[in-house]
Amino acid sequence: MRIVSLLPSATEIVCQLGLADKLVGVTHECDWPADVRRLPKVTRSFIPPEATSREIDGLVRERVETGRALYSLDMPALERLEPTLIVTQTLCDVCAVAEEEVRAAVSALPTKPRVVNLEPTNLEEVFDGLRIVGEATGCRPRAEEEVAKLKARVAAVAERSESIKKRPRVVVLEWIDPPFSSGHWTPELVRLAGGDEALSIAGERSRTLDWPDVVAARPDVLVIACCGFDVARTLDDLPILRSYAGWNDLQCVATGRVYVVDGSAYFNRPGPRLVDSLEILAHALHSDVHPLPPDLPAALQQDAACV
Predict the structure, then answer these.
(1) Which residues contact 119 (CB under 8 A, 6 or more apart)?
(2) At the top level of CATH, which class does the domain 163-302 belong to?
(3) Which of 43, 90, 126, 284 satisfies CB 3.0 to 4.6 Å to 27 for a cystine?
């Protein structure tokens, strides 16, 4: 079995199932577990690494509107790897190689690999992704074991949240310039963690916001989880948030309840570490109720005077 993963969350799923030694190729964005960074890369991005958030947004919109992909397959590399299984997704053309390009590539490969598509929109469908990959790789029992462990952690958070009397109004932003609401599984994570997402609906896509929408939502807590950005890159964009009208009037700013998290590694990557995301978020919302597991980074709280 020779597996090529076309998205970081699929790479994490494959490794979670004990199949890291079967991975022969990954994307340029796959970085977890750390060992996968040494594997051959089969994709490249058309987004310049030095682009600003506003420029990235413009490029994404232009390419999506014209039907052009944001990522491209390296066909010579793919041919050399001779995959028997390709794991990809059809949920979002922003996040991976376009489905049409994958189909065309498979047709051109002499090995004619099987293609498994993942398209989760909620936490249960993320768990189903483990089962789907487990079925395709002949390790469904291992997949069920891993899902059971992940679900037990989710249940533990949900049980602790039942004791919470006052649930804060939460806004999770997936982008800053322009602002984007959270999408898909994130409102579910907020609910499980003991909060109420004020601008998003579970299972729906993220959407562009007008900044007055955020102000009108009156969030008690603001969580910034920029898609594709780590904490350091997200912090670069905080001055943009501070420049928006009404920023200083937000309750979450006055109380220092603005948090920055690693959206790339956690909140926007629909793999096993979404449960890590839940635990990080739960601790940020209710640190007196939800302990932070020792191996996870705390959400970076922005001091009221700083923000």
Answers:
(1) 89, 90, 91, 125
(2) alpha beta
(3) 43
